[in-house]
Write a structure and sequence with these properties.
Layout (H helix, E strand, L loop, with lengths): L4 E4 L6 E4 L7 H4 L18 H4 L6 E4 L13 E7 L14 E4 L2 E4 L4 E7 L11 H18 L7 E8 L11 E7 L4 H17 L3 H12 L3 E4 L3 E4 L10 E5 L11 H21 L5 E6 L15 E6 L6 H6 L2 E3 L3 H9 L2
Parallel strand pairs: 2-15
Antiparallel strand pairs: 1-2, 3-4, 4-7, 5-6, 7-9, 8-9, 8-13, 10-11, 11-12, 12-14, 13-14
Length: 338
């Protein structure tokens, strides 16, 4: 791709500027560095009873059929309340209130940390069993919130490295249960609905079919999941992972398909670490909201991975148009060849 090109996202309608002429080849502008590995001594997650903001929520061992609710020496995954939560659940309902011309909602919700045992094993380095346990813990906790009237949406995400917002080196994952649907998810849901009403097809399934036909941006594929660089990538080396089957809700995903998605996520992160010189990154899950499930059958849940390569500047902040200096075709090729 020689010249710049504006591309419109099929779901959100947002415009993205692909401008490969602003950068050199991918391998020439990626930062080479050694990751600073914090020692175990002094790590708050080596003593979870002191690190949490309350009693342990769930403890998983390698052979757990049912999670424990107390410490076990052979634990592999633990779920604890965040000691410094963004939202609180202290018996206050998430009621709307008007203050002048503004609408507010009390910040009722839950903010949990999911912590894996090995101090140096981030998600791509976990054993297959431990990686599956992480997602099992997500779903188990998810089920607890289904009947909570104060929970409209659950955000599941992972920050790896200081540029991605991780303040503690020890690998950990976060779940925040919110009383509102986040704006980015609202836009995705609305765009998905618009496309379905016009075409009677899932917009994400259409994207998947086209990516599989073109093959240029496919990074990895297994029986139940596809990893690809989106044609309209908002940032350099953005990656998305979709289950092949149309599934609106993360929590309703069959176990065999979830295992495939987990395997694809580990593979994608391994390839990204090797090809992009171990960047900091975020990954998060976009899924349909908990309530009124009949309204969201048009949606298709997925995982997005955003490596922290560039920082948005004045143009992006002033226009809402992201500039991506790496052609997604070249991004997929670069990641895939590793």
């Amino acid at each position: 791709m020689k010249y710049s090109e504006l591309r419109q996202d099929l779901v959100s309608g947002d415009w993205i500027l692909i401008a490969p002429g602003r950068a050199r080849k991918p391998e020439e502008f990626l930062e080479k560095r050694e990751r600073l590995r914090a020692p175990k001594e002094g790590c708050p997650f080596e003593n979870l009873e002191a690190a949490g903001g309350g009693e342990m929520i769930a403890v998983y061992t390698s052979d757990s059929t049912v999670p424990r609710v107390s410490y076990h020496k052979d634990w592999r995954v633990q779920l604890i309340p965040n000691k410094y939560p963004a939202v609180f659940h202290d018996g206050f309902a998430a009621k709307e209130k008007e203050i002048g011309p503004y609408k507010t909602v009390f910040g009722a919700g839950y903010h949990d940390l999911l912590i894996t045992k090995d101090h140096n094993a981030n998600f791509p380095r976990l054993s297959k069993n431990d990686a599956n346990l992480v997602f099992r813990a997500f779903r188990d906790r998810y089920a607890i919130f289904l009947d909570d009237p104060d929970v409209a949406y659950i955000s599941i995400f992972h920050n790896w490295g200081p540029k991605a917002g991780a303040s503690v080196y020890h690998p950990h994952y976060q779940m925040i249960a919110l009383p509102v649907i986040p704006p980015d998810v609202e836009h995705s849901l609305a765009g998905s609905k618009r496309y379905f009403q016009k075409n009677r097809r899932c917009v994400h399934c259409v994207q998947l079919a086209w990516e599989k036909k073109e093959r240029k941006r496919i990074i990895y594929e297994n029986n139940c999941a596809v990893v690809f660089a989106p044609f309209v990538s908002k940032s350099e080396f953005e990656i998305r992972i979709f289950p092949k089957q149309h599934l609106p809700f993360f929590e309703d995903t069959p176990e065999n398909i979830m295992d495939c998605v987990v395997e694809a996520l580990q593979k994608a992160l391994k390839l990204m670490e090797k090809s992009l010189k171990d960047p900091d990154y975020n990954f998060f899950i976009h899924t349909a909201p908990l309530n009124n499930k009949n309204r969201f059958s048009h949606y298709h849940w997925h995982i997005e991975i955003i490596p922290k390569i560039n920082i948005p500047a004045g143009f992006e902040l002033g226009t809402g148009i992201e500039i991506n200096v790496v052609d997604p075709d070249e991004a997929a090729k670069h990641i895939r060849k590793r």
